[in-house]
Amino acid sequence: MSIKLAIVDDQEIIREGLFDIFDEVEGIEVLGLAENGLKAVEICTEKQPDTVLMDINMPVMDGVEATKAIKEKWPHIRVIILTTFQEITYVREALQAGAEGYLLKAIEPTDLIAGVQLISHGGTLISKEIANLLIGKMNPDASSPQKAGNSYGLTERETDVLRALASGLTNAEIAAHLFLSVGTVKNYISNIYSKFEISDRLKLANRAREEGVI
Questions:
Q1: pTM
Q2: Which of 76, 141, 163, 185 is the one with CA 20 to 30 A from 40?
């Protein structure tokens, strides 16, 4: 039985990128794309997907509110939060709303596909970075694998990408250097921009060096 999937993200390039990932996967049918939570609810009304891949920070209706609305009307629909945001409040709100998964956009496509398949068939999944964040909040004294000076919660892979970016490499060069796809590199950089609240490569590199992150 095929998985009927809806994809929700306010950025068209991400919606289309996710569609391209799942469009070629046997056993997964993408029923629709939505740019906000309200449109996601409309898709659920009209097409009844069994799984929704949901962004958090969107206009009109955000992912948490959309998850609540979907779960109230169709509790059988599985909701997977896919976002760049790691703030603990978003995690708790999304899980309290009924989401079965919480993943970061920097996830590898093969892992994302496996996650959707797992959750669609009744499982639950929270990315390792999110789990570490939850554990850290419950036990602030727990030792952290992050390097000293990294107060931005970068994963090891994000630190690798940041270091390559700060060396002046282009996205294509970073992809070749780290054996990643260009799309995955872009997702990592988007994550890093979000965490630093910076959208300029030079400013990002300078701050990372100044604060000892790299």
A1: 0.65
A2: 185
The span from the CA of 134 to the CA of 102, in Å, is: 12
* Encoded amino acid at 80, one letter: I
- When the candidates are 3.40.50.2300, 3.50.30.40, 3.30.310.180, 3.30.420.40, the CATH number that belongs to 3-133 is 3.40.50.2300
Are the C-beta atoms of residues 47 and 72 closer than 8 Å to each other?
no
Amino acid identity, residue 168?
Answer: G
Dump pLDDT digits (tens) for 154-179: 888 888 899 889 988 889 888 887 87
Distance CA 65, CA 83 (A): 15
Say if residue 186 is exposed, middle or buried (CB neighbours under 10 Å; 0-12, 13-18, 19+): buried
Q: Which of 22, 78, 16 is nearest to 48 (CA)?
A: 78
What is Dmax (Cα atoms) for the chain?
Answer: 53
What are the residues whose beta carbons fall under 8 Å from the beta carbon of 198, sequence distance 6 or more? 204, 207
